[in-house]
Amino acid sequence: MKLIEEKVKYVADGTIVTPKGFQAAGVHAGLRYTKKDLGVIVCDVPASCAAVYTQNVFQAAPLQVTKQSIAVEQKLQAVIVNSAYANACTGEQGLKDAYEMRKLCAEAFGLPEHLVAVASTGVIGECLPMENIRASIPKLKPTAQLDGAVDFQTAILTTDLVMKKTCYETVIDGQVVTVAGAAKGSGMIHPNMATMLAFITTDANVPSDVLQDALRSITNVSFNQITVDGETSTNDMVIVMASGLAGNEPLSPQHPDWANFYEALRQTCEHLAKQIARDGEGATKLIEARVKGARTDEEAKWAAKHIVGSNLVKTAVYGADANWGRIIGAIGHSGAFINPNCVDVWIGSIQMLKQSQPVPFSEEEAKAALMEDVVVITVDLHVGNGEGIAWGCDLTYDYIKINASYRT
Amino acid sequence: MKLIEEKVKYVADGTIVTPKGFQAAGVHAGLRYTKKDLGVIVCDVPASCAAVYTQNVFQAAPLQVTKQSIAVEQKLQAVIVNSAYANACTGEQGLKDAYEMRKLCAEAFGLPEHLVAVASTGVIGECLPMENIRASIPKLKPTAQLDGAVDFQTAILTTDLVMKKTCYETVIDGQVVTVAGAAKGSGMIHPNMATMLAFITTDANVPSDVLQDALRSITNVSFNQITVDGETSTNDMVIVMASGLAGNEPLSPQHPDWANFYEALRQTCEHLAKQIARDGEGATKLIEARVKGARTDEEAKWAAKHIVGSNLVKTAVYGADANWGRIIGAIGHSGAFINPNCVDVWIGSIQMLKQSQPVPFSEEEAKAALMEDVVVITVDLHVGNGEGIAWGCDLTYDYIKINASYRT
Questions:
Q1: A99, A110, A108, A111: which is closest to A137 by C-alpha?
Q2: Per CATH, domain A2-278 is 3.30.1490.10
Q3: Where is this site: Involved in the stabilization of negative charge on the oxyanion by the formation of the oxyanion hole (chains A, B) (predicted)?
């Protein structure tokens, strides 16, 4: 893995418009008081695409419309996104509105409707103010300049405090290939696409089916391994659009440079996922749980997810309290196979538990490790070779403050 | 059910010493600063018993010792309990200490060791200060007076704010039969016995195997349907002791008055469970989620549990924000079968969603319903006849405050 990782380079100033062929825009449509709230990504050509959706049984109207678009020829050329209103539990009217959003976007950019995806995020159960959407879509002026990406990144946020974006590049068939993304997250972030939207662009030449397989498997070790509060939402999705303009030969797992592309996409997803977890509602720290020695990778992922999902672990991390008993409690009901007599636990580099026995440690050093911006919790179950990582955030007074009155 | 419920009477001033044959005591052993922290229940005769334990794979030493005691002849005559230290993840020494606690208690009351159960609750990973335990067990002077029960009720508490106790009576074979209980709860309360101890006494004549079956099935609709923060602990158990001194014929499901006993035990467990949920760490309200119209009772229970377990629902209830979208979000990933087009939701008596469509409601009335001490959320899934109830509490600033520095 080391070698492959070295072949992928982080592009600090890259955004969703860095890959060849993409433009973006964001405007204030008046759905929120002042923040930009309507954004679009447009590709110069129909792009191969892949998407994964929330597993909540209540799927919002825009997801249904997007699925229909993609089903036609597995290509997209634009995605239109609003914040403030989720357009979920809005019945027939909601579906009508999502179709209209798609139509208006298609008309504005001269595209067939089925090449347009629609995404929404915000409050459930209230209908979109369509006059604002109608008046504002024509004002979207996509550009391949940084501005366009920043405006889009802003437009998709809800209670997020910071924009989430990333960009990686690699070389395929001698061509530089770029993968970039923008995302929104915050509360309700848990397994399986939870109030989370991520839009990934790449100029790689990669067929839709290959892209879909890669996205699905990468989602399981990135977006699906983050949690803010254990909830899943009705609206979440990750969309990847591949313009193919980098000029490489079509990618597949048989392609000699496949691993480069896969790794660039994986790092893009992981970096976005970590930014989302770090910016969970009220969060002050990123928690990274690394579980090794599990019976399988799957069980290691469960255990890691339970650690970052535990309110008790999250509050202990907030309070910088080295309460490893709560880590034990969390993995003990994760469903992962555990031998209760041989578990090791570390917080940062400080071992707290060895063979399930407390190890004396300096409370001061432990406190320091828990004051870091990234708190790493490591568990070795010593029952196999399975490994997994999950990311979450601490649980703070501000989480309560934000969520006790979201609608008001 | 109505008829049976009427045959069971709540005894407002009853406690664990109300059923014939039971005495209790509690003292300050110095495990905590000033609060009583060591308690005992003693029966005049060896009592039939039943117990259920945490499903966390890390089971504390006292649970192991208690299981061994009960395995001998399914009878108990005393249970000794300490708070402040959980005696979990304490290795060989912890097991040795739990055995010693059992032995000291057996000696103090002249009992064979296998008639003594041991329970502990508190911090994980620190060994019991055995000098204090040794010095204090002889100071326990059980009595059948109210004092004894109150001292016991106090001794088992950790971060609980109030004592939890209840008592019901019914008539079996013409004899008054009493069932009573004391419990402790607070944080880490979730499915399957989580940092929760409950001790139930009854003077019914009921064999251990019959009692065990009843306890198991009642636990699934009472203690296992409450949640404070989704965690399970290493120490939790519910123990029932039946002295048989009421003088009824031995009970079994074939006994004509069986339903009376079962209902008294069920109400005892449900009342203790609700008190535990209501007193969750930092809680200001009890949340009761009632789900009907599910495919099965099991699925209704999952859905109800997901509602009261959702941090987003819990914070919305705290903020008296009628955010029914979060209720939808919670049931949508509960695993229960749902038709997304036909769900009804009420908060209190106010309908918010009908056939999955928002119903206009008065925000003021909704706020009033959410300011009640008990907030009832009702969901009708309209896909079957399954019903289930779960209880939880709101998530508040104080939960964070309490848990950010539990050890310090």
A1: A108
A2: no
A3: 121-122
Alpha carbons B129 and B29: distance in angstroms, whole number: 10
Beta partners for A81? A39, A119
Contact B232 A123 (CB under 8 A): no
Whether the CB of B71 is below 8 Å from some CB of chain A: the reply is no
Shortest CA distance from A93: residue in chain B: B357
Residue A269's SS3 state is helix
Residues 235 through 294 of chain A touching chain B, CB cutoff 8 Å: none
Q: State how beta strands A164-172 and A9-10 pair.
A: antiparallel
The distance of A263 to chain B (nearest Cα, Å) reads 31
Contacts of A123 (CB under 8 A, 6+ apart): A84, A85, A86, A406, A407, B325
Which residues 287-326 on chain B approach chain A with CB closer than 8 angstroms?
Answer: 309-312, 315-316, 318-319, 321-326
CATH 3.60.70.12 spans which residues of chain B?
8-278
Q: A195 versus A217: which is more confidently predicted?
A: A217
Residue A60, Cα to own-chain centre: how many angstroms?
Answer: 18
Tokens standing for residue B246:
């009421």
d(CA B70, CA B52): 11
CB–CB contact A405 B325 (8 Å): no
Q: What's the rounded Cα separation, in Å, for the pair A150 and A29? A: 16
Which of these CATH numbers, 3.60.70.12, 3.40.50.1220, 1.10.8.60, 3.40.50.720, describes B8-278?
Answer: 3.60.70.12
The CATH number corresponding to A286-403 among 3.40.1670.10, 3.10.20.340, 2.40.50.140, 3.30.450.40 equals 3.10.20.340
Q: Is A91 on the interface with B (CB under 8 A)?
A: yes
DSSP tag of B188: S
Indicate which residues of B carry an active-site annotation: 195
- What is the rounded CA–CA span in Å between residue B151 and residue A315? 31
Q: Do A357 and B91 touch (CB under 8 A)?
A: yes
Sorted by sequence, the CB contacts under 8 Å of residue A92 that are 6+ apart come out as none
Chain A residues whose CB is inside 8 A of the B230 CB are 230, 309-311
Q: Is the pLDDT of residue A232 over 70?
A: no
Tell me, what's the pLDDT at A233? Answer: 65
Nearest residue on chain A to B333, judged by CA atoms? Answer: A56
Calculate the dihedral angle through the C-alpha atoms of B77, B81, B87, B91, rounding to the nearest 10 degrees. Answer: -20
pLDDT 10s digits, A356-394: 888 999 999 999 999 999 999 999 999 999 999 999 999
| % chain B with pLDDT above 70 | 94
Distance from chain centroid for Cα B33: 26
Lowest-confidence pick of A233-242, B142-151, B159-168, B186-195: B186-195
Residues contacting B217, CB < 8 A, separation 6+: none
Task: State mean pLDDT over B360-380.
Answer: 94
Non-local CB neighbours of B96 within 8 Å, separated by 6+ positions: none
Looking at the partner chain, which of B234, B311, B400 has a beta carbon nearest the beta carbon of A229? B311
If pLDDT is split at 50, 70 and 90, which confidence band does B191 have? very low
By DSSP bridging, strand B9-10 and strand B164-172 are antiparallel
**Where is the binding site, in residues of B?**
158, 184, 195, 281, 403, 408
**Token digits for B225?**
């349907």
Contacts of B357 in chain A (CB under 8 A): 89, 91
Q: Do B319 and A188 touch (CB under 8 A)?
A: no
Chain A, window 181-220: residues with a beta carbon less than 8 angstroms from a chain B beta carbon:
187-188, 190, 192
Ranges in chain B annotated CATH 3.10.20.340: 286-403
User: What is the chain A residue with the closest CA to B319?
Assistant: A404
Q: Do A333 and B55 touch (CB under 8 A)?
A: yes
